[in-house]
Design goal:
Elements lengths: L1 E5 L6 E7 L9 H12 L6 H5 L4 E5 L1 E2 L2 E2 L4 E6 L18 H5 L11 H8 L5 H7 L4 H17 L3 E9 L2 E2 L8 H10 L7 H16 L6 E8 L15 H10 L4 E6 L17 E4 L3 E4 L7 E2 L2 E2 L4 E7 L9 E4 L6 E4 L9 H24 L4 H17 L1
Antiparallel strand pairs: 1-2, 2-6, 3-6, 4-5, 7-8, 7-9, 9-15, 10-15, 11-12, 13-14, 16-17
The structure holds flavin mononucleotide.
Length: 388
């Protein structure tokens, strides 16, 4: 499975084309809209999230509530476009005043300057319209389709926030993924620990008041993936590597770790590797899951546990120095409107991109074309692993 997206932040719409989704998967707009709404929630988000409720239109690949096996086309309109029709017009415009309103002041930390250098743009709107995280809307839509595939084969995905602006969730004693999902869904910062969640919100308020922004860490857990998914035979077949790339491809994500992650550098091997156990009921299993569900790029059958670190949002009210690309004059980059923290929303994006990679691996390994055959084959793989 693969997908491409197109569309600008203030253009008419965002589009995603999903190829390779198996036939016979129950899918309707509601499955996707539910996830789009989750992405739009979150403490610290700006006005756009409130004015613009995203809704998907499925314009190809689904008939009578079931996928056809043909490419799936998803469209999300930018409702704000009505205010941008001239600035973002596809056809040439002759309104001189609008043409002159170029963005010539690059923001440190965003793609503005590098993008302009790369494509030869003197109006950096041509860069920021696409590098904006608005694009993650349709990545979440694609992830919602992936989640449907995973649901059919008994695989569950949950994401939550474990750190914002240096405040870390300490109490993470959830008993099941369902409990983690239920609690974090009610938290404005998607945090399981209510005390930490409260402090996170206070830190976001502090950032907002000071015209600053803050980042954090999100975690995604995938349960129910059979052992043996992915491969160790080539770099581009390792499933942990694909998931790592997917996480770092999210706007503002700068690092990724599995299981105990970077902590592994500080511990001896005896406190890092997961001992292998066996029982007639479970077959092979692990005493611990410090590896976060992978050895050799292949799933162990334990939950996949992956974390991503998000840097603070680059657009700040508080000025940072930059240089105008036309006048070459230094100026303090300040703007009118931005979020101060998007970590809760980013945890929904992280769920989506991880779900896509896992679903793609399942489809590739267990049957490709038909959902019913994939389901049978996944069950067969589970039985095989148990009896191995
Ligand atoms: C959900 C989400 C929302 C974001 N919102 C903003 C925003 O409002 N303003 C901003 O400057 N950057 C925002 N970003 C981050 C930028 O898109 C990102 O920093 C930029 O594309 C440069 O890419 P890089 O940080 O990955 O190098 C957001 C990122 C995510 C994941």
């Amino acid at each position: 499975m693969r997908y491409l997206t197109a569309g600008e932040s203030h253009g008419p719409q965002l589009t995603a084309i999903l190829e390779g989704v198996p036939a016979g998967l129950a899918l309707c707009a509601e499955h996707i809209n539910k996830e789009l709404a989750r992405r739009q929630k979150g403490y610290g988000r700006g006005r756009r999230m409130q004015i613009e409720k995203d809704e998907v239109k499925i314009t190809g690949g689904v008939r009578h509530g079931k996928t056809l096996g043909s490419p799936i086309a998803l469209v999300v309109e930018n409702r704000d476009f009505k205010h941008w029709q001239t600035i973002m017009a596809v056809e040439p415009i002759d309104d001189e005043a609008e043409v002159k309103r170029k963005v010539t002041r690059p923001r440190p930390g965003h793609a503005d300057l590098n993008g302009a250098l790369k494509y030869g743009h003197r109006d950096m709107r041509n860069v920021l319209e696409r590098s904006s995280a608005r694009e993650t809307t349709v990545r979440v839509a694609a992830g919602a389709v992936a989640k449907r595939i995973l649901e059919e084969v008994g695989i569950r995905v949950a994401g939550h926030v474990i750190e914002i602006g240096g405040v870390r969730a300490e109490k993470l004693d959830y008993r099941s993924l369902e409990e983690l999902q239920a609690v974090t869904e009610e938290s404005p910062v998607r945090c399981f620990d209510p005390e930490a969640g409260q402090k996170m919100m206070e830190t976001i308020d502090w950032a907002k008041k000071n015209g600053d922004s803050i980042g954090g860490i999100v975690e995604v857990i995938v349960e129910g993936v059979p052992a043996g998914v992915g491969s160790y035979v080539h770099y581009d077949r390792k499933l942990d590597a694909k998931i790592a790339a997917a996480i770092v491809s999210i706007n503002a994500f700068k690092g990724v770790e599995f299981g105990i992650g970077f902590e592994a550098a500080r511990r001896p091997g005896s406190e890092v590797h997961d001992e292998i156990i066996w029982s007639p009921e479970q077959g092979f299993s692990r005493r611990t899951n410090r590896a976060g569900g992978f050895e050799g790029g292949v799933t162990t059958g334990m939950p996949i546990v992956v974390r991503g670190v998000m840097k603070p949002i680059p657009t700040l009210y508080k000025p940072l120095q930059s240089v105008d690309i036309e006048t070459k004059e230094p100026f303090a980059a300040s703007i009118e409107r931005s979020d101060s923290c998007a970590v809760p929303a980013a945890s929904v994006v992280a769920e989506a991109v991880v779900a896509w990679e896992v679903a793609a691996a399942i489809v590739e390994q267990f049957g490709q074309d038909r959902m019913d055959l994939i389901k049978e084959n996944v069950e067969r793989a589970r039985r095989y692993a148990k009896e191995f």
